[in-house]
Amino acid sequence: MNVIGLMSGTSADGVDAALVEIRGTPADLRVREIAFLTQPYDDATRTAVLDLCRPDAPLLALGRVHVLLGHRFAEAALAVIAQSGVETTAVDFIGSHGQTVYHAPGGDLPFTLQIGDPAVIAARTGIPTVADFRAADVAAGGQGAPLVPYPDWLMWHHSTRTRALQNIGGIANVTYLPSGGGPESVIAFDTGPGNVLIDAIAVRASNGASRYDRNGTLAAQGEVDETLLSHLLDHSYLQQPPPKSTGRETFGAVFAADLWRQAEASGLSPAGLAATLTAFTAASIADAYRCWLPILPDEVFLCGGGADNPVLVRMIREYLARAFGGAVPVVRHYDETGYSSAAKEAVAFAILAYETWHGRPGNLPQVTGAARHAVLGKITPSANYRQPVTGGSL
Description:
By secondary structure, the chain is an alpha/beta fold. It has helices at 43-51, 58-84, 118-125, 134-139, 149-156, 196-205, 217-220, 226-232, 236-239, 253-266, 270-292, 310-323, 344-357, 365-368; strands at 2-7, 14-25, 28-40, 94-96, 99-104, 111-115, 129-131, 163-168, 171-177, 187-193, 299-303, 330-333, 378-380.
C-alpha cells in the first residue's frame, strides 16, 4: 500500500508530508520512502497555532470539555445498554453526533465543530464508535446540515402521502418527503429558530429558575407584539433559499439579549416577549413552507421539545392556515407514529452510523449543498478492532 503521513511538530514550522510504500506484516514490515517535502507555515498561520498553545488559551477549555463529553456520551451508551438488558458484546458499533460548539459552513475556511471525543467513547464502552459525521459533507462543499433527512426518508417516505417532519429543537428544521419520491426528491433545511430564543427569555424572566417555557405558560400570559414580529420575520436568514442551516451563532444568546433590551425599552413585558418569540418560531415555520416547499404537505409530524409546547403547536396550526389560505395539513405529534420524538435524532445517527459502517453515503447533496454524496463520519476502533462483529468487520 502507498500511504501518506502528515505531521506538524512542536516547533510549528510547517507540515511534513511523506509518501511511503508499505509491504508485509509484522514482524516482516518493509517501508520504502517514495517522496518527502515540508510545506512551511506562513507567519500568520504559525502565530495562530502558537497562540493556541498558551495555558490560558480557550483551546485548553475546549480540549478538556471534548474529553469530558466523551466520558458523558460513553456513560449514556453504557446506561442504555444496561436498561436494554442486551450484552455489551452484542452491540456492534456506536454512532455519536457529539455536541456542536460552532457551526460555520460559510466563508473561506468552512467548518462545523462537534466535540465529545469518540476515542473516549470507544475506550470506555469497548465498542467501535462512528463520529464527526458533518465534516465530510462540509469538505464536499455542503453545509454539513441537516443530515437527519436521509434517515427520515428511509423511515417515513410514503407512496401516496406527502409528509413533513418538523423538528423543533433549539433550531427548527423540516424534512419534506414528496409522495412516491426517492431520496433525491427530499427537501430539507433549517426553518429558523425553534426553542432557543423562547428558552433564553424563560431563563431571564425566571431569574434562572426555569430553563424553558414549560407548556408555553409564560407565552400564554402575554400578547404578541405584531410590530416586533414583523421585524423579526424580515431577518435575512429567513429570506435565504435552501440549502441553508443555522445555529446559535445567528439565533443565540446575543440575539436574545438584544431582544430583551428592546423589550425593556419599549415596555413589552417578559410574557409579551415570550408570546412574540413563540409566534416568531411558528410563523417562520409556516412562511418557510409557503416559500420553499412545492405544495402543502398532507401530514406534518412535530418532534423535538417544541412539539410538547401546546401554545407553540396551536400557533403553528394558525400560521399554517394563514400562509395557505385556510388549508391546514394534519398536524400530529411524532409520538403518534409509535416512535419516540425524544429519541428521533439519536435513532437517526444510529442509522447514519449503520450506513457509514457499510460504506454507503449518508448525505443528500440537494439538501446540504454538497457537490457529491459522501460517506459520513470517522470510525474509531475499540479493543475488538479487526475482530468479526455481527454487522460486518472493521
